[in-house]
Amino acid sequence: MSKPEDPEREHRIDYEIVVDCYDELERSTGWYCYLEDRLAFPFAAECCQALTASPLKTGERVMVTGMADQDYCTATMLVQVRWQGHSLAVPLSQLEAGGDEVNEDTVEAMGDWHYWIEQAFCF
């Protein structure tokens, strides 16, 4: 079930992220560029939901080091994390920014992505 609409986020998504995007590839590229520009890497994050496609468990903390290669982000946005001494890509929707050192742009951009997912929007 989707959450109540957020007009400010809706405006940012429509006019900054997916503006002039006419197909799935353009929308995924718009999101990738927006997140790559707005997320201030590295930053600490916490797993907010377990997913079968990821080894992270709810409550686990990781360091987000960058976006995954754009070629892997055509279905969802993936980020690189340091986890148990390894680097791996996990869905951004699985993470929440954690800690006082995370900047406002990162929190806002992650919130925008979570909103997009929660509203059941797709590329």
What this model shows, in words?
The chain is of the alpha+beta class. The protein is 33% helix and 22% strand. The chain contains three helices and five strands; from the N terminus they run H-H-E-E-E-E-E-H. It has helices at 7-17, 24-38, 104-118, and strands spanning 43-47, 61-67, 78-83, 86-91, 95-97. Strands 4-3-2-1-5 form a five-stranded antiparallel β-sheet. A hairpin with a 2-residue loop joins strand 3 and strand 4 (86-91). Helix 2 (24-38) packs antiparallel against helix 3.
Biggest β-sheet: count, sense, barrel? 5 strands, antiparallel
Sequence of secondary-structure elements:
HHEEEEEH
- Helix count equals 3
Specify the helix fraction band. Answer: 25-40%
Strand order of the largest sheet: 4-3-2-1-5
**Strand portion:** 15-25%
Please count the beta strands (DSSP E, at least 2 residues each): 5
Low-confidence stretches: none
> Could you tell me how far the N terminus lies from the C terminus, measured between alpha carbons in angstroms?
18 Å
The global form is globular
Overall mean pLDDT stands at 94
What structural category characterises the helix and strand content?
A: alpha+beta
Radius of gyration: 14 Å
